[in-house]
Amino acid sequence: MWRRGRWVVLGLVLLLVVPVLAAGTALRLNYTGELREGTKTRGKDAIWLGHAWVDGRKKDADLTAFAARIKGTGIRDLYVHAGPLEHDGTLPAERYPRARWLVDGVHRTMPGIRVHAWLGDILATEGPDGLRLEDAGSRAAVVASARQILDAGFEGVHFDLEPLHSDDRHYLSLLDDLGELTRARKAPLSVAAHQIDPLPAAHQALGVLSGGSEKWWSQEFFGQVARRVDQIAVMSYDTWMPLEGMYGGYVAQQTSLALEVTPESTDLLMGLPFFHEDDLGHHENAETVAAAVRGARLGLGRTDPGRERFGLALYVDFAAEERDWAAYRAGWH
């Protein structure tokens, strides 16, 4: 009985460990190879900026310093946190009292740079509290908030709604309504996107195992979202990857998967981890800027090296260190 039990345990261990080792090896191999010539900045990069830029904490000197910081990079778009939205989709105007100062200051110190309002909220997809996209009134309020933010002087609107499950038809309906507004106002509509299933139906499997939590979107759903917006920025961090080579290979895979379904009329941006934490989802020694840049370049070179509407998105300004900026410049310019 004891010997039979040993073989059962060994079999279970192999059943769990071997696929993990195989996946890790595949990702590491995906990080190898030569970088293709020309897979560098197209001048369509973006950066997420914290709320301090619109609530009064930032001053003229900060604008001058930031202008010097991004000079010579490919950064074109600033996603400035102007929310969060209320759970009913509304946006109190007192949350962005210095919006006009920021937009005017950017135009003065950084000609050609566009300022988007970054709006978001927790969705009630995995808990009782949050924004409910299935509520038509809430969706209408989100559209009204986008109109409000454009009236305040922002040149575009960027949405980050999480956790957003794959195949959410109410989200697609919201994007359709937002698109009508932004096209009429000639303003770009952009979204932060979840990662794509690294294996077929991975989001569904995780949902079953976790009791409803989903990390990834299906590739098909990613494409449906990408076709409805002007920009889509993949949050290609918080990946659970334990090693830098595996993380870089994962970003290369994500880049390829995203390129395959993003129309050429939409800007595709791959997120860079400009922050430093150590937890289950993000290991800072693994999720480095250098690995993300190299992974994005590998994926671009293998899948669509001529894609012009492609860039990197830096998350986030207030947590970035000098080494992050240096790695971004060295690897992408």
Can you give a write-up of this model?
The protein is α/β, with parallel strands linked by helices and 333 residues long. The protein contains ten helices and ten strands. It has helices at residues 2-30, 60-70, 99-109, 136-151, 169-184, 202-210, 219-226, 244-261, 289-303, 322-332, and strands at 45-49, 75-81, 114-122, 156-162, 189-193, 195-196, 216-217, 231-234, 267-273, 310-315. The strands form two sheets. It has an eight-stranded parallel beta barrel with strand order 1-2-3-4-5-8-9-10, surrounded by six helices. Helix 9 (289-303) runs parallel beside helix 10 (322-332). The longest helix has 29 residues, at 2-30. The protein is globular and about 50 Å long. The N and C termini lie far apart (64 Å). Mean pLDDT is 93; it is low at 5-18.
How would the blueprint of this fold be written?
Elements: H1 2-30, E1 45-49, H2 60-70, E2 75-81, H3 99-109, E3 114-122, H4 136-151, E4 156-162, H5 169-184, E5 189-193, E6 195-196, H6 202-210, E7 216-217, H7 219-226, E8 231-234, H8 244-261, E9 267-273, H9 289-303, E10 310-315, H10 322-332
Parallel strand pairs: 1-2, 1-10, 2-3, 3-4, 4-5, 5-8, 6-7, 8-9, 9-10
Helix pairs in contact: 1-8, 2-3, 4-5, 7-8, 8-9, 9-10
